[in-house]
Design brief:
Layout lengths: L8 H6 L5 E3 L18 H5 L1 E5 L3 E5 L4 E12 L2 E12 L5 E6 L2 E7 L2 E8 L2 E9 L15 E7 L7 E2 L2 E5 L5 E6 L5 E9 L2 E7 L3 H4 L3 E3 L4 E3 L3 E6 L2 H10 L15 E3 L1 H4 L5 H11 L6 E4 L28 H9 L3 E6 L3 E3 L13 E2 L2 E2 L5 E3 L5 H18 L3 E4 L15 H22 L4 E4 L9 H4 L4 E3 L9 H7 L9 E7 L5 H11 L3 E6 L6 H23 L1 E7 L10 E8 L2 E8 L16 E5 L8 E6 L1
Parallel strand pairs: 19-20, 19-30, 20-21, 21-26, 26-27, 27-28, 28-29, 29-30
Antiparallel strand pairs: 1-6, 2-3, 3-4, 4-5, 5-17, 5-18, 6-16, 7-15, 8-9, 8-11, 8-12, 10-14, 12-13, 13-18, 14-15, 22-25, 23-24, 31-32, 32-33, 33-35, 34-35
Helix pairs in contact: 6-7, 11-12, 12-13
């Protein structure tokens, strides 16, 4: 590839190759051992034996074969490839893998890397660093590799970082990857030549994530997938990678319907009478889903009561069917919350060790939680009865599946603890699929204390996903905008919590944040005044008029001048486009300035909501 040519997806495919480490083979030298398992002797032995548009075949002459599968996905915004790697043991002896990358691409041209940082209630912060800042400049004789390795351990895959990496060169070409990573994962950037990287990722290696996998003769193992693409901007790359995902969205949820979740109304204390009051307040206002969140089960303190899923009869006399029926009578689809993988300290199953995930032979305990072994047939039957049975018998059409702590590095099982963890989480995904088979129209919302599971493999199993647990702070628009880089806005559920003491400006600020994804209301809905409801209705109408742009469009601009999530200052502008029509959402934070409206000069304003005329105000415009 000539250095003055533009780096392309074809160049990336030429650089695609296997990275693997087998037990008993030498680890990589040149001071790399302990930093990376890439470029090991195991990988060097594999030679290309067959190649076509969909698969590359490699063999090492020792009875081991690797298949790198490449599925081309054309989106309205560009082309991506879905890549996975299969290792086949054709030898007469068992072999143990210590590392097997989903993808590895050499020769990636780059001068800077883009990553997305994340913590609880602070998801998606963009972090851009030059190779020099990362200390990824080659050694003087190009011998010792420079390595930047990052990832996550546990069953909450989005902590510290999203499983996403983009490498941009000085010409503006951006190579990027998004991992299908529901559990532990790792991404690596390795430098031996100036402004040139080997980028690899997938499951964590043995050093990083305690992952090993033993294959008997004739057995094979397929890695999770990775999406790769090359585009001419970071936002275009993100549009392609998210559009290349294939979420199993319920046919019921195809219209961008608005939800109401009562959690920020009752704070974990729902009851028949309280939910009935909410349903009465929402009747005829165009709300599609009314979701009953945590607290409908157990006695008190829902946090410590997960696992039994027995209705609190004091709060819901006669069970959950009467309130589900009442919600339907008001023209809405009833929804209900479960944290189906967890068993908390007050559950009668907390000490049912034979059915719980273990580490070192003991039930794995995190705070006040333990975890069902989702591979256990007894557990599957139990959850079929308690979860699927309740959904069917009560007529719920929406389920919010939460997950509020992580199993950490791994658990007991037949392989390394990292691989055992992967198997447990895959069993959870199988239960999601069973939910859809049993209830084909069921709307599934994935939540993990907000955004801890915002990765492609979980997103493809649900209709919507909670964007964050940041329910009311002023940083909500920042989080919601940043998630456009990794989550389809049509799946990203943004909460607009409305309070009876809110000013009109605050209500508009919250509703405008909801325009950055799927709108979900909560808060003091029964207590809002007629004047407040008039403004809310205006905002809901605007959301519906923008729904196609939110669902089908491409985000072409995100500008945010605030460095802080905690105390945001300055302004934010996000613009999304569909067939020449654009949605602009403006938010002003503390110490803000009058927005620059030059982007509207000469444009036809189709619709406008609110006015960003001071600190912590917002407005939205649809224009051509």
């Amino acid at each position: 590839m000539a250095q003055n040519s533009r780096y392309s997806i074809e160049d990336a495919l030429k650089g695609l190759h296997p990275e693997v480490k087998l037990l008993k083979d030498p680890y990589p030298g040149s001071f790399a051992n302990g930093l990376t398992m890439c470029e090991s002797e195991s990988a060097r032995l594999f030679k290309l034996t067959e190649q076509n548009d969909s698969v590359d075949v490699y063999e090492d002459g020792r009875g081991h074969k690797i298949l790198i599968r490449k599925e081309r996905i054309d989106t309205p915004f560009g082309t991506a490839y879905k890549v996975s790697t299969e290792f086949i043991n054709q030898d007469e002896n068992p072999c143990t893998l210590e590392m097997l990358a989903s993808f590895a691409v050499s020769g990636v041209r780059a001068s800077r890397l883009h990553r997305l940082m994340s913590f609880w209630s602070a998801e998606g912060r963009l972090k851009t660093e030059t190779l020099a800042e990362l200390h990824l400049e080659p050694s003087w004789n190009r011998w010792a590799p420079r390595v930047e390795s990052f990832g996550n351990l546990g069953s909450m895959p989005v902590r510290r970082y999203f499983p996403f990496l983009a490498a941009e060169d000085d010409s503006g070409s951006v190579f990027g990857v998004q991992l299908y990573a529901p559990s532990s994962w790792q991404l690596q950037a390795i430098c031996r030549q100036p402004n040139t990287l080997l980028i690899a990722g997938g499951l964590p290696d043995r050093d990083f994530g305690q992952w090993t996998k033993t294959l008997a003769p004739g057995e094979s193992f397929v890695t999770p997938s990775a999406l790769i693409s090359v585009q001419d901007s970071l936002l275009k790359l993100s549009s392609v990678l998210t559009a290349a995902q294939r979420p199993d969205v319920s046919s019921v949820d195809s219209d961008m319907g608005i939800a109401f979740n009562e959690y920020c109304t009752t704070w974990g204390n729902p009851s028949f009478e309280r939910v009935k009051q909410i349903a009465d307040s929402l009747e005829g206002r165009g709300i599609k889903y009314l979701v009953i969140d945590a607290g409908w089960f157990g006695k008190d303190n829902w946090w410590d009561s997960t696992g039994d899923w027995e209705v609190n009869e004091k709060r819901f006399p006669g069970g959950m069917k009467p309130i589900a029926d009442y919600i339907r009578s008001k023209g809405m689809i009833p929804g209900i919350w479960f944290e189906l993988e967890s068993v908390s300290v007050r559950s009668k199953h907390f000490n049912s060790a034979e059915h719980l995930v273990k580490r070192d032979g003991l039930p794995l305990t995190v705070g006040s939680r333990r975890f069902w072994d989702m591979e256990d047939p007894w557990v599957k039957d139990y959850l079929r009865e308690r979860v699927i049975g309740l959904l069917k018998s009560c007529g719920f059409g929406y389920i919010k599946i939460d997950y509020n702590d992580t199993m950490g590095a791994g658990c007991d099982g037949p392989d390394g603890i990292g691989e055992n963890l992967r198997r447990k989480v895959e069993a959870t995904k199988d239960f999601f699929r069973e939910l859809k088979r049993e209830l084909p129209e069921l709307v599934i919302e994935s939540c993990s204390s907000g955004g801890h599971r915002l990765e492609p493999s979980m997103l493809e199993l649900c209709s919507q996903a909670s964007f964050s647990d940041a329910h009311e702070p002023s940083c909500i628009p920042i989080i919601a905008a940043n998630l456009h880089r990794v989550v389809r806005p049509s799946q990203s559920q943004i909460w607009a919590v409305l309070r009876k003491g809110d000013s009109d400006k605050r209500i508009a600020y919250s509703l405008c944040a909801g325009l950055l994804g799927r709108l979900c209301l909560s808060g003091d809905i029964p207590e809002l005044s007629l004047e407040q409801w008039s403004l809310v209705s205006e905002g809901l109408s605007f959301y519906r008029s923008a729904a196609d742009i939110i669902k089908y469009g491409r985000t072409e601009l995100i500008e945010c001048s605030s460095d802080s999530y905690d105390r945001p200052t300055g302004n934010q502008l996000l613009i999304r486009e569909l067939n020449g029509t654009r949605l602009a959402v403006i938010h002003r934070f503390g110490e803000s300035a009058t927005p620059d409206y030059s982007f509207l000069e000469g444009k036809n304003i189709i619709s406008r909501f609110s006015s960003a005329d001071g600190d912590f105000t917002a407005e939205a415009v649809i224009y051509r």
